[in-house]
Write a structure and sequence with these properties.
Two copies of one chain form a homodimer. Chain A is an alpha+beta fold. The first copy, chain A, has helices spanning 37-43, 121-126, 132-149, 223-235, 284-291, 313-324; strands at 48-53, 56-62, 65-67, 86-91, 94-100, 116-120, 161-164, 169-172, 178-179, 184-193, 196-201, 213-216, 239-250, 255-264, 278-283. In chain A, a hairpin with a 2-residue loop joins β1 (48-53) and β2. The first copy, chain A, is globular. The mean pLDDT of chain A is 96.
Chain lengths: 330, 330
C-alpha cells in the first residue's frame, strides 16, 4: 500500500504545499533501494522517464497537452545518457526516472520532431505545463542530476565516484567514502514594518522587478540569525522577530528556500550597492496596486514596479502579507 | 560600527537563540573579504585562534576557566596547519580564526602541557566550557573546516581546489569552478497526538535514550513533506499539520537542524526495524516524570528512559511541549 501522503484525498494545508515544485507525490523508497534498482526500473514495462538537457525538459505535445514523462523509447533520439539515469520513485508501482540528455538545446542545428519542445524549468512552472506533482518530480530530478554532475570526483581524494542506490548517493572507488546529495538552505524574508514592506532589486533582475531579500544560510547560523545578517548586510535594516512561513524546493541548482517574515526595528535603508540596484519600502496600498496591475507606469507606459512570478516564494510572501495579513508582528 | 546584532543589549527571543551552537556573534564580513584576509588576520596582534583536531578543541585551563581561543603562539606546539586556517570573523575589530591541527587526539604517546586538554564538541557544549557565542564560533569553525577537508578536489573535474576569501569558498585550479561551504538541512520532529508524543531509539543511542525522529531533507521536498515522509518511514505514523519551532546549527559535520512539531493523525506504530530499536508513545505525565528524574527504573536501578542532553534540539522540543505547551495542535 502506498504511503498515506500519496493518496489524492490527503490535502496538506500549509503554505509550502501551494508553491511550485513542492507537490512531488512519488514514493521514493530511498531507504529500501538496491544498487540495481535503476536497471530493474528500466526493464519495467510502465517505466516513465523525464529527460533533462542543461536546464530544459523534453516535452511532447498532444494538442494542448504537454507530456513530461515518456516511455524509454521516446527519448532515444535525444542522446540519453542511460548510464546516468536516476530513479525518482514509484507512482502506483510504476517507476519514474530522470535521465540527462547529451544534446545541446542551444545548438542551432538541433532538429526536433514537430510535437517535441525543450522547455526550461521556470517556463514549465509559470505556464503550468505539468501537474503540481510532476513539477515536483521534475525539481527532484533536476536537483539530483545537477548534484551528480558536480560530484563525479571525490572531494577528499580526487578519485572517481560512482552512483549507488539509483542516485541516493555516490561512492568513491578509491577511498571508499560515500557522499550524499546536496541541498543548500537559503533564507528569503519579507521585512515588514507596520503597513510597509521592504523590497530590493538585484542588478540581474528584469527592469522594474523588486523582490524579497535572500541569502544562503552560513555555517553556525540559525534561520533567524541568517535572516538578520542578510537583511542587515543588504539593506542596513535591523530585524527583531522572525516568523517561518513556508519552504520551497528550488531546482537552481539544488536549493531549499526557507521563506520568513522579519519584523523591522528600524527605517533607514543603507543599501549594499554591490548587491542591490535599489532597495525601498512599499506601503501595503502600493503593493496591492502593483499586484492588481494598477501600479505606477514609466514614461514608456510599462509598470514601474512588479514582483516575481507567482511560482516564486517571494511572490507568496508579498501576496500573503498584502492580501491575507500574514507576517504582521503587532 | 559593528552590526546591531553584535550589541550585547540585543537579545533575540526566538527558541533557536537558546540552543547550543546558535549564539555566534562574530562579524563575519563574508561579502567583503579579500583573498589575503587570513594572512592579514594572522599578523593582527589581537588575533585569536581556535585549534581543532578530529572533532576535539584545544582548551587551556586557568583554574576552573576554560579558554578556547588562543594567541597564535599558544597553538604552535600542537601541529597547526596554518596554511589551512580560516577566518571566522571579527570581535570588536580583532580577528578570530580556526586552524586544523595535525595531532591525533587518540595517540597514546601524545603529551600535552598540564593546563591543556583536547575536548570534543559535545562535551564542550554540555559542560558549558565556552560562552554561548564562543560555542557558536566553534560550530562555525568546525563545520567550515570539515567542509574544506571534504572539498580539496573538484567534484566536476577532479582538479585540485584552493581556499579563497579566508574560507568562504574554494576555487578549482583546473576548471576554475567555485564551490561554497555545504550545510545539510535535517528535519527533526516531535510528533504529538493530544496528550502523548512519539519518541524512538536508534541502535546507536546509549541504552534507555529516546529522541525525536529525524532525517535529511531530500531534493524536491519542503520542510513539511520531509517531516511526513521521515515520520512515516520510521514509525508508520501519519502527520497532518507541521509547525516550525527552532533551528540549530549542528557541527556533525555541517548540519542545519530544523526542529518541528508534527500533528499525528494515527496511533498505530509500524517501526522501521532497520532504523529504530524501539519507537513508542509517551504521555505528558511520563515525559514530565522522566525530565524530573522520577521516571521508571530498570532492574539495575538506572532510569529506564531518558531524553537527549539539553544541548540537543530534540531535548528542547520535548521540554517545550511537556512543560510549556508548545506543539499542541488542538
Amino acid at each position: 500500500m502506498p504511503p498515506y501522503f500519496l493518496d489524492p484525498n490527503f490535502q496538506p494545508t500549509e503554505h509550502s504545499a501551494k508553491l511550485a515544485f513542492s507537490g512531488n507525490h512519488l514514493d521514493r523508497q530511498s531507504e529500501a533501494r538496491e544498487d540495481d534498482c535503476v536497471d530493474r526500473a528500466m526493464e519495467h514495462s510502465d517505466a516513465q522517464f523525464i529527460g533533462i538537457a542543461r536546464g530544459r525538459v523534453v516535452l511532447r505535445f498532444n494538442g494542448e497537452d504537454a507530456i513530461g514523462f515518456h516511455p524509454h523509447d521516446h527519448l532515444s533520439d535525444h542522446q540519453p545518457r542511460w548510464e546516468r539515469a536516476i530513479l525518482l520513485g514509484y507512482e502506483n508501482g510504476a517507476p519514474r526516472l530522470a535521465v540527462p540528455l547529451g544534446l545541446n538545446p542551444d545548438d542551432e542545428n538541433l532538429v526536433l520532431p514537430d510535437d517535441v519542445k525543450l522547455v526550461d524549468f521556470r517556463s514549465l512552472a509559470i505556464q503550468k505545463l505539468l501537474s503540481h506533482s510532476e513539477l515536483g518530480q521534475m525539481a527532484q530530478g533536476a536537483a539530483t542530476l545537477a548534484w551528480h554532475s558536480s560530484a563525479r570526483y571525490c572531494g577528499r581524494c580526487g578519485g572517481q565516484t560512482e552512483m549507488k542506490g539509483g542516485g541516493v548517493k555516490r561512492h568513491c572507488q578509491s577511498c571508499k567514502a560515500d557522499q550524499f546529495p546536496r541541498t543548500d538552505p537559503v533564507v528569503i524574508m519579507l521585512t515588514v514594518r507596520g503597513d510597509k514592506c521592504l523590497l530590493g532589486r538585484s542588478p540581474h533582475f528584469p527592469p522594474g522587478m523588486y523582490s524579497a531579500l535572500a541569502g544562503f544560510v552560513e555555517a553556525g547560523e540559525t534561520m533567524e540569525t541568517a535572516v538578520r545578517r542578510e537583511t542587515h548586510e543588504e539593506s542596513g535594516i535591523h530585524i527583531g522577530r522572525v516568523r517561518y512561513h513556508a519552504t520551497q524546493p528550488w531546482p537552481f541548482p539544488h536549493t531549499l528556500m526557507i521563506g520568513c517574515y522579519g519584523e523591522a526595528l528600524s527605517d533607514e535603508i543603507v543599501r549594499d550597492e554591490g548587491e542591490l540596484d535599489d532597495c525601498r519600502w512599499f506601503t501595503r496600498d502600493e503593493i496591492l496596486a502593483i499586484l492588481d496591475g494598477n501600479g505606477p507606469l514609466t514614461e514608456d507606459d510599462v509598470p514601474q514596479f512588479f514582483t516575481p512570478p507567482n511560482i516564486a516564494i517571494a511572490s507568496r510572501l508579498v501576496t500573503d502579507w498584502a492580501r491575507n495579513g500574514e507576517g504582521q508582528f503587532d
